[in-house]
Amino acid sequence: MRAIVCQEPGRLELVERPTPSTVPPGWARVAVGHVGICGTDYHIFEGKHPFLEYPRVMGHEVSATVVEAPADSGLQAGQRVIVNPYLSCGSCIACRQGKPNCCTAIKVLGVHTDGALCEEIVLPAQNLYPAGKLTPESAATVEFLAIGAHAVRRARVCEGARSLVIGAGPIGLGTALFSRIAGHEVTLLDASAERLEMARTRFGFERTVEAGNDVASVLAPLTDGDGFDVVFDATGYARSMESAFGYVAHGGTLVLVSVVKDEIRFSDPEFHKREMTLVGSRNATEEDFRHVVSCIESGKIPVQALITHRTTLEALPVDLAHWAHHKEGLIKAVVEIGG
Ligand SMILES: [Zn+2]
Ligand SMILES: [Zn+2]
């Protein structure tokens, strides 16, 4: 089969590889349909991922068609599915508590193990969910949207809450979309005027604020000085995460969606006087994937506005290298591999 291998940072190659020969008990074989490219993939390509071993086949945002599946899995050959790329151990404390998204031994397909930028993969049948009425292309957006859906679910704030999403990249946009679906009044904050323009024109987010000097005084009137009931940080910048504490209302919640390697600092009196709830949000679970599928089915997510770029396995080495340095107008690129 054809596969794209990242041989070392900066070098992607289209190669021939054997198709996976064995399917372990409880696992399924799927033909890859479409794969979304995300920030993690650009990091792997650029050698910025902290623990990555090369060579690596990337690809963790996956729609596929079942080739063979265990009889008791409820999956049929020919069925279209969405891949949950978080491979969990099933026995650690997090797995025992129904939180495989933060399994202590988690392996992410396409990061810690070879992923889906190829024609066929095998993985546990329990990591496959029916794609419902979704097109094969839109099914490849479910994973990154599920991260935003998970963050919103983790926030546990009610309808009518005033939310601030910091970072209008794909994860921030996904978070903002699910925050709006949850009935929140959403404000988006980003340093890029171009991204905010896309958020307004493509997704109808009217309240956008460009980061710059004295953002706090621009944000304050949006809540009559109260602060936001919930703030989501999806920037991947420690300084932004630290500032985010200051935008939370008394009694409010801060959800850290993106992760940084650095330590972050905050003022305990500011945190304490608000009785703030600080929440980490990592990956997503089956419940989030299914919520995303039903929101796309009911037309609440404008998937076609999210997919801005398309390519094929053959063209990917050139295209991905280009997009790594030219992200103007890019939200989500999708690779078409099979039907
Ligand atoms: Zn991703
Ligand atoms: Zn586990």
Care to give the gist of this entry?
Residues 25-131 form the Alcohol dehydrogenase-like N-terminal domain. With 339 residues, the protein is of the alpha/beta class.
Description:
The chain is α/β, with parallel strands linked by helices. The chain folds into two domains: 2-140 and 302-336, Medium-chain alcohol dehydrogenases, catalytic domain (Quinone Oxidoreductase, Chain A, domain 1), CATH 3.90.180.10; 145-280, NAD(P)-binding Rossmann-like Domain (Rossmann fold, 3-Layer(aba) Sandwich), CATH 3.40.50. Helices cover 28% and strands 27% of the residues. The chain has helices at residues 39-46, 93-96, 136-139, 142-155, 170-181, 193-203, 215-219, 238-244, 268-273, 286-297, 303-306, 316-323; strands at 2-8, 11-16, 27-37, 61-68, 80-83, 86-87, 107-108, 120-124, 128-130, 162-166, 185-190, 208-210, 228-233, 248-256, 277-280, 307-312, 332-336. The strands form four sheets. Strands 3, 4, 5, 8, 9, 16 and 17 form a seven-stranded mixed sheet that branches. α4 (142-155) packs across α5 (170-181). The protein starts with a strand and ends with a strand. The model has no long low-confidence stretch (mean pLDDT 96). One zinc ion (ZN) binds next to α2.
What order do the helices and strands come in, and which of them pair?
Layout: E1 2-8, E2 11-16, E3 27-37, H1 39-46, E4 61-68, E5 80-83, E6 86-87, H2 93-96, E7 107-108, E8 120-124, E9 128-130, H3 136-139, H4 142-155, E10 162-166, H5 170-181, E11 185-190, H6 193-203, E12 208-210, H7 215-219, E13 228-233, H8 238-244, E14 248-256, H9 268-273, E15 277-280, H10 286-297, H11 303-306, E16 307-312, H12 316-323, E17 332-336
Parallel strand pairs: 10-11, 10-13, 11-12, 13-14, 14-15, 16-17
Antiparallel strand pairs: 1-2, 3-4, 3-8, 3-17, 4-5, 5-9, 6-7
The chain binds zinc ion (ZN) (2 copies).
